[in-house]
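Structure ticket #2291
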Amino acid sequence: MEKFCLLTLAVLTALLILPSEAQTQSKFFAIGTDASLECTWNDLENPEDIQVVKWTFKGRRLREGKRYQYSSEGNTHNLLIKNIQKKDKGSYICSPKMRTDQLLGDGKFVVSVDKARLPEMPEPRDVRMTEGGTGNLNCNYHQAKERYGLKLFWTYNGEKIAEGDVVHSGTNANYRAYTDEEGRDWLALSNLDLEAAGAYKCNYKYPDKQIFSMKFNVLVKDLTGPADQIRNVTVNEDRYTQSLICDLSSLTNVLSYRWEKDGEVINNETDSSGKMILLEDDMVKTLEFDDLNSEEHSGAYRCVAELEYYETGLTFNFVVEESTKERDFAPWSQWSSCDNAGKKYRFRTCIADGCSDLYGFVYEVQTGYCDEDDEME
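Resolution: structure written out below.
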């Protein structure tokens, strides 16, 4: 009897593992950026089973160098294309070579390269600031800045703000540009003056030379000082002297000061008679009148302090009334007899209420000389 041996042929079918995402992926990259392609085989148990991953472009194998860099971490393999250009668009394939009989599928990328797709630029923002104060401008574009490696520069009225700390040559306003922890870009302005007003832009330059900008129309308001303090001062010619006192000690950073009368600057040279004298005691400024005269000395006197950004003043509405002595005093007495010195005297007495307050005395003495031809009246 013949015996037959049954030969059983076992056919093992290997499982094909594809990359984790769709086998063919479409990728867009902006000109001049660094493009990264990534193949991952999640179901691969041992990453060491991959001997090498070969990257090809249009059927040509890509060698590592200045433009192409390979890297891997676990089951993920990367191709980095430096400074990608339009000539780099097309199909890229990652092909793994295994140390085992396990089969891994290729990954395919269809890469398109063009200018970056910039968002629509926002409407300009009006920003109001105050002379002598500070202000801040900020731009939040950190995601695109990080993704494309954008370069930031600030401009004022279309001109790039120069290195240093002054906005432009025609202003004393200072600036400081910085980026905060959240990636927002700031321009901090200080020591503002009217010449710092204008159009400011934060500009982000893409590798393909495109520029995305955000515009700020900065308005700097003229800083006006407080209204003058007003003091009304009324005196009589018979008081003879009067002082107007201006105390500037409560002010800081006084650059200069001046006195004005009815809008005209006055000083010790403008009054040749010497009846009006300007005096200084540190920050106390005094305007002193001697031999008061109603017509000459009445007026609006202003003590003006010039500060860094505005002026402030103290106004005296100074009224000098004409003499009332002839009304307030009794007639002069007769002249006395001449004394041994050849002098004679006469008197008159104040008869009005409050004489001592008005004149500081209640009677007046006049002295004459006996050898005078005309008797003093």
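Closing remark: Residues 1-14, 373-377 have pLDDT under 50 and may be disordered.
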